[in-house]
Amino acid sequence: MVGPPGAGKGTQAQILASELSIPKVSTGDIFRANVSGGTELGKQAKAYMDRGDLVPDEVTNAMVRDRLAQEDAQGGFLLDGFPRNVAQAETLNKILGDLDERLDAVLELRVDEEEVVKRLSGRRSCRNCGHVQHVDFDPPATAGVCDACGGELFQREDDKEETIRHRLEVYREQTAPLVQFYENEGILLTIEAVGSVADVTARAKAALGNRS
Asked: Which residue in the list 94, 156, 160, 211 is annotated as catalytic?
């Protein structure tokens, strides 16, 4: 799945993976599993993370290779958050070639940047319980007060407009070229990621169904 921050990739990946009865494979999940499991790759990744450094592509790629080789992924899988750039996409093609697999489709969730800013900058998180509300889409009954526990709602640093716009700029520079890469490979499917979660899921299933 490809799309900017705030496009709803994580939500749609979870729904589609469940409905298709295939595992959702995300780099975040892979990292946590390797680190908590104390694998050799997990130890390597933790050493970088503990220093505050980015985990190198070669470690991430090795984790992805191991995950895709596991038994539950033999009947298919849905990648969420990987690849993030063309170099990783090229490596993924090599990994899949070694496993005698290939990508059937790449689903792009398209959403206007101003909509992304509105979605993310309107989020407020509870300092007490972590519950998330939205000033427009899910406003609290009392301004600044969490509906779930009565704690204080605040705006996280990564939900501030200037941070969101920077993330979008990074996406345009590093991840957006994946769209052209997979279009050239003839497996790109694009849907509009606006409307309700159910609406977007229906569009995704229709696009994937047409592909098959």
From this structure: 156
pTM: 0.83
Residue 67's CB: how many other CB atoms inside 10 A?
21
Per the annotation, the verdict on 9 as an active-site residue is: yes
119 annotated active-site: no
Q: Which amino acid is at 106?
A: V
Q: What is the pLDDT of residues 36-78, one digit of tens each?
A: 999 999 999 888 878 877 788 889 899 999 999 999 999 999 9
Q: Is 203 a catalytic residue?
A: no
Distance of CA 115 to the CA centre of its chain: 17
Q: Which residues 6+ apart lie within 8 Å of 79 measured at CB?
A: 1, 25, 26, 92
Contact 128, 116 (CB under 8 A): no
Q: Rounded distance, CA 190 to CA 175, Å?
A: 15
* Cβ–Cβ < 8 Å for 80, 25: yes
* SS3 assignment for 119-138: HHHCEEEECCCCCEEECCCE
